[in-house]
Amino acid sequence: MKAIVLLSGGLDSTVCMSVAQQAGYETVPISFDYGQRHFRELACARAVADFYRVKKHVLIETNMRAIGGSALTDDIEVPAGDEQRQDVPVTYVPARNLIFLSYALGLAEVEKAEKIYIGVNAMDYSGYPDCRPEFIQKFQQVADYATKAGIEEKKISLETPLQYLSKAQIVALGMKNGAPLHLTTSCYQGGEEACGVCDSCLLRLKGFREAGFADPIKYKK
Amino acid sequence: MKAIVLLSGGLDSTVCMSVAQQAGYETVPISFDYGQRHFRELACARAVADFYRVKKHVLIETNMRAIGGSALTDDIEVPAGDEQRQDVPVTYVPARNLIFLSYALGLAEVEKAEKIYIGVNAMDYSGYPDCRPEFIQKFQQVADYATKAGIEEKKISLETPLQYLSKAQIVALGMKNGAPLHLTTSCYQGGEEACGVCDSCLLRLKGFREAGFADPIKYKK
Fold this sequence. Notes:
Two copies of one chain form a homodimer.
Chain A: E1 2-6, H1 11-22, E2 26-33, H2 40-51, E3 58-61, H3 96-111, E4 115-117, H4 133-146, H5 148-151, E5 157-159, H6 167-176, H7 199-211
Parallel strand pairs in A: 1-2, 1-4, 2-3, 4-5
Helix pairs in contact in A: 1-6, 6-7
């Protein structure tokens, strides 16, 4: 019984990985080197995969910089976070989750996996359109038509265990599952120590604070 | 008024490109180096893009071999064609069109294009699940939710002008539009001359024959 897990090396995907493991799946993590500024997360993904002693960890390399349009792949400055902001931020990477899920679907078909775990979150989600529950529902529908597995009615289902959790609940779930949160990174800047001021750092710190745990990773300030 | 065109360098995508050009769009072709056996098609895609003097041609490089599961990317032999076959052939690349369309959607968003042209075909389609009209319909739905453009109601629409055409009709349309069919390749083997025996070559030859035109490319036999 296999499950593909989208593993970025960040907090959410690592907690998601712990959920798939707890559910008894043989997990096959998939990670992406897409020209992201914070490529350091790939080393974290590798460390998390090693922690769970997976048999196979798939790394997809792709030059999403050729598409452009994001502070995470272009030479646009990553802004300091603003928790009140309502619009889609410059760190949004056009169609990224759609692209990632599409690869995961292809891998699920080849590996004969029945689940794809993705740590999208509709609560503390930074305003990305492709983290919304409606997006996930629509992807499930296209997945049923996109593959040979779909034709043969061996449905591959998306699992989004973090969908309706707050960041604090995600941290608490990870702690309960013994997820290796000390091996994760969340900072968009990609430095050795987290910046503590970007959107992603702010959300993470708030999550740990509200959950009542100390964040085990290092911050600059 | 811009349109993204998925351009493989094959017959169908080149005819599709000619349709987008005829419709008056400034076209931005996107091509993929995905570890395909027939990478020669990329040179053809470049030649077709040059023929149309496009301002920008995006090449996405990605190691789809890491996913495996196809004769087009793995070291599995490409079989001789069988026009009567009903099942999904080994040349099927898991989730390929879904992956390609996802990139095209991201590019459309960045380029502010209103259309994505893809030369899928439901008639002479080699049995690939991701060429079916149902798949295209479902992708349109996920596209509306996956992007910032979707949130802002600047809908990006898929155009599939070849959907219900026979190969002969595709050839005839290409000839009518003055598409550079002499610059295209269709063979899965990827040799300098087309093999003339794989699925793709058989379909192409049948199309030219039925349309009453000579195929301008070279064949081994």
